[in-house]
Specification:
With about 240 residues, the chain is an alpha/beta fold. The chain is about 30% helix and about 25% strand. The chain has a single domain, classed as Rossmann fold (3-Layer(aba) Sandwich). The strands form two sheets. The protein has a six-stranded mixed beta sheet with strand order 6-7-8-3-9-10, sandwiched between helices. Helix 5 runs parallel beside helix 6. The structure holds adenosine-5'-triphosphate and magnesium ion (MG). The site of magnesium ion has 3 residues, from helix 1.
Length: about 240
């Protein structure tokens, strides 16, 4: 699936997510979000803790079935992907996730962690490893390719997780604070790699971040509050 630049990769229509909180009361984590992410664009999502940023990524990434509204990825309604197994397969093929925590598989090396999804998809092992090393190199982590996660620093683990998210050439990349564990130079490098995936592969990239230092790399910035998108601006444009 190669998206055409300027066409929507992801469409959310009035998406709501409600959770039952610990006290039994319902929490409206997403209160009706409508959003299109276009092929080739990188969007930053900002907002206070608890405003629904992670929930938005979970709904967009088909990890959370919304309570209301509709999600469409590359023209396919998520509701039409019927079983959990089919949904998992759909995600693995089309979506790259970078979570707040790296969640690498401890018994696999960095390169094996990156290569795994490719191997599952039938890419020959040697080719998968070559691509894994190339992705790690783009993130300045190739020298750690043979190490297991336990012997990597937090920032190195996070860069491996970014490489893993990009391995299957996803049309949609969703990253939740991917630079929180990184110094500013490496944080910027991760953001630049994500942006190059948008530009070169025409993927849509959404990044939740609190980090104002990479604002100039975003095509659009969405501000969230209280489960909604409350403002949208283009960096450089008047707020
Ligand atoms: N599984 C869950 N069960 C119940 N409530 C939840 C669940 N997940 C999130 N919430 C609630 O939904 C709201 C939105 O949470 P979310 O994790 O999306 O916020 P966030 O913007 O990502 O915050 P942070 O910046 O702290 O990561 C919060 O009030 C949170 O407590
Ligand atoms: Mg969050």
């Amino acid at each position: 699936m190669t998206p055409q630049p300027g066409t929507p990769v992801l469409s959310l229509r009035d998406v709501g997510v409600r959770y039952r909180g610990g006290d039994g009361a319902m929490v409206e984590a997403l209160a009706g979000v409508t959003l299109d992410l276009m092929a080739g664009e990188m969007v930053g999502i900002f907002g206070p803790s608890g405003c629904g940023k992670t929930t938005l990524l979970m709904a967009a990434g088909l990890l959370e079935r919304p309570t209301s509204g509709a999600v469409q990825l590359a023209g396919i309604p998520a509701a039409a992907v019927a079983t959990e197994a089919a949904l998992r397969d759909f995600r693995r093929r089309h979506i790259g996730f970078v979570f707040q925590k790296p969640n690498l598989i401890p018994v696999l090396t960095a390169a094996e962690n990156v290569a795994l999804a490719m191997v599952i998809d039938g890419v020959p092992a040697a080719e998968a490893e070559r691509r894994a090393i190339a992705l790690l190199a783009a993130l300045e982590a190739a020298h750690r390719a043979g190490n297991r996660p336990a012997s990597l620093s937090g920032g190195e683990q996070q860069r491996v997780a970014v490489a893993r998210a990009l391995a299957n050439d996803p049309v949609l990349v969703l990253a939740d604070e991917p630079t929180a564990a990184l110094d500013s130079r490496r944080g910027r490098q991760v953001m630049e790699v994500l942006r190059s995936i948008a530009r070169e592969r025409h993927a849509a990239v959404a990044v939740v971040t609190h980090d104002p230092r990479s604002i100039d790399l975003f095509d659009r910035i969405l501000e969230m509050d209280d489960g909604r998108i409350v403002a949208e601006r283009r960096p450089g444009a008047q707020a």
